[in-house]
Specification:
316 residues; six-stranded antiparallel sheet; 43% strand; eight-stranded antiparallel sheet; mainly beta; Jelly Rolls; disordered N terminus; globular
């Protein structure tokens, strides 16, 4: 008897899969497509022009991508391409090294490019960002994509084991207990701020990544590290605010929160430095219970300052 492959058990596993992943079939995932050939028009990394350059994976566990660049041996056609990703569908960061294993962009300096990449993903959106590196806006890029569905759920045997573990938890009275080691999202980096010589800020401050904040949808834990350096005439202050209001722009009820600085072991609700250097490393291991987060940056004084704020988000 084929225990794992039996039709009754297949139905049971389908039920388990629905409970774990929601009602999801391959028909729910986006179809294959491509950006069509697009001329790269930006001198800095920017999303590839065209309506189809932002690929919303809608939960698909992986994607295959074919990148085609025209011949760049003529300097006027030279371009560079990187993959950017987003966990909220809005704020994109450079995930090229995370996906490809190399920080180097895809370039056509030595001739036309036609490469295929396969990525297991835990991010919501992926987009090709491109820039021309010499000559002007004449190089072209085209990206084809095919979402992968073959790893939508764990193998049946693994699902059965986790299902039994979950039942055991419930039998002990742990109603709502969370089973460890369900499939999780990759770690996604965020470059909130990396600059020197920031001009004096208004009293209200500057908000990162924007005044409407960043959605924490799909993020369970978030770590933020950085370095604040202020000159003799400068004072730099950083605070963190969260909000559960669905309208973050007009009526958002933002609240300043406390945090633990792992470098000092101290708890505080702000970071302030004057005529000194301040390093920080902040772990939020359950930040996903909030809907949105933003960073408030206030600079008073001159331009003798350097501010670096980086983050890593991990899926639930």
């Amino acid at each position: 008897m084929d225990l794992i492959g039996g039709p009754k058990l297949s139905k049971m596993f389908a039920t388990i899969r629905t409970a774990v992943y929601g009602i999801r079939t391959t028909r729910d995932f986006p179809a294959a497509g491509d950006t069509a050939s697009q001329t790269v028009v930006s001198a800095v990394y920017a999303i590839l022009p065209g309506a189809n350059s932002n690929f919303d994976l809608n939960g698909a566990p992986g994607i295959s991508m074919r990148v085609v660049l025209n011949d760049g041996t003529t300097a006027a056609n030279r371009i560079a391409v990187k993959f950017y990703g987003s966990v909220d569908g809005t704020n994109f960061v450079d995930v090229h090294e995370l996906l490809t294993g190399s920080p180097d962009p895809i370039v056509n300096d030595y001739g036309a490019v036609d490469k295929v990449y396969q990525f297991p993903l835990g991010i919501r959106n992926i987009a090709p960002y491109a820039m021309y590196t010499a000559g002007g806006a004449t190089g072209t890029c085209r990206v084809y994509w095919q979402p992968k569905f073959d790893t939508v759920a764990d193998s049946q045997s693994n699902l059965l084991k986790k299902f039994i573990d979950a039942c055991a938890d419930l039998s002990r009275g742990n109603v709502g207990a969370r089973v460890d080691n369900w499939p999780s999202n990759n770690i996604v980096p965020y470059n909130f701020f990396d600059n020197g010589g920031v001009a004096t800020g208004v009293t209200a401050g500057t908000y990162l990544p924007s005044s409407t904040g960043m959605s924490l949808a799909g993020i369970d834990s978030l770590s933020i590290t950085g370095d604040l350096t202020a000159g003799a005439a400068d004072t730099v202050t950083v605070t963190f605010e969260v909000c559960n209001d669905e309208d973050t722009a007009t009526t958002g009820n933002w609240k300043q929160i406390y945090f633990l600085n792992d470098l000092t072991g101290a708890t505080a609700n702000s970071l302030t430095v004057s005529n000194a250097d301040l390093d920080f490393a902040i772990p939020w291991r359950a930040i996903g219970t909030y809907a949105n987060i933003r960073i408030k940056l206030v600079v008073a004084g001159g331009l003798s300052n350097t501010i670096i704020i980086k983050g890593n988000g991990k899926g639930a």
